[in-house]
Amino acid sequence: MAQVTFKNGPVTLVGNEVKVGDKAPGFTVLANDLSPVTLKDSEGKIRLFSVVPSLDTGVCDAQTRRFNEEAANLGDNVVIYTVSVDLPFAQKRWCGAAGIDAVQTVSDHRDLSFGEAYGVYIQELRLLTRAVFVVDANDKVTYVEYVPEATDHPNYEAAIAAVKALA
């Protein structure tokens, strides 16, 4: 299992660690309108999953804005999701205030389906740790980053390069 810290303290990740080459695990999260979103909904597309603890924090805000900006250069065959346990209503409000229109925010608050499937659920906090996953059009995981310290930024350049390598 990936080892991460949150504010420099060790935390327990629940679920299965995902590795490059794995078949992407299925999940069910909620869109901002409370409709279910699954891996199959974006079948045949390249997916980037940007996982954050909460959109209401500076690094999570910056991470989502950065991937939103990058989306314009990635083409129509790429879907970018920001996954958190923030309530769908809060995600929708945040996206409106931040002008986020190219990234789809989805909520894992209900049953932590994504968190457990991708090994990013922090047991002690009931939050998701910061991570980035790239999944190709055939549901194969091609890039994984579990950010070692959850309050740090991910490697944006490496994640974007992984998407561009598939496009």
Automatic annotation (TrEMBL):
GO terms for molecular function: thioredoxin peroxidase activity. PROSITE patterns: THIOREDOXIN_2 (PS51352), TPX (PS01265). Residues 18-167 form the Thioredoxin domain. The keyword Iron does not apply. It is an enzyme of class 1 (oxidoreductase). Thiol-specific peroxidase that catalyzes the reduction of hydrogen peroxide and organic hydroperoxides to water and alcohols, respectively. Plays a role in cell protection against oxidative stress by detoxifying peroxides. This is Thiol peroxidase.
